UniProtKB/TrEMBL annotation:
Organism of derivation: Acinetobacter pragensis
Keyword Transmembrane helix part of the UniProt annotation: yes
Region (Disordered): 70-96
Transmembrane segments: 16-38
Keyword terms: Membrane, Transmembrane, Transmembrane helix
Lineage: Bacteria, Pseudomonadati, Pseudomonadota, Gammaproteobacteria, Moraxellales
Protein name per UniProt: Uncharacterized protein
Compositional bias of kind Low complexity: 73-87
Amino acid sequence: MSQSEPNDVKPGKKKVIILMALGLLIPIFLVSMAILAVNSDTKNQEKYAQQKADILKKIQAREAAEKLKAEQELQGAASEASDASAAKTDPAADSQ
């Protein structure tokens, strides 16, 4: 006389319970991974925007420095040319 205890689960029911648990856990896992990916992507986009802004500032500073240097070279060349032409036309400059 063996009676099955109420806590004893049949093997067929055990498979069904496992499949139902997986059926619930897999979608929850996928949704949580999607949320994690979106959050990570947002952080990466912010870092990328900051890096882009830093690079743009560096480029603008370099271009400004190059422009200033070019202007100084032009002014230096113009002053040398005016000094040379003044020296050619001024006879007093030759005697000194």
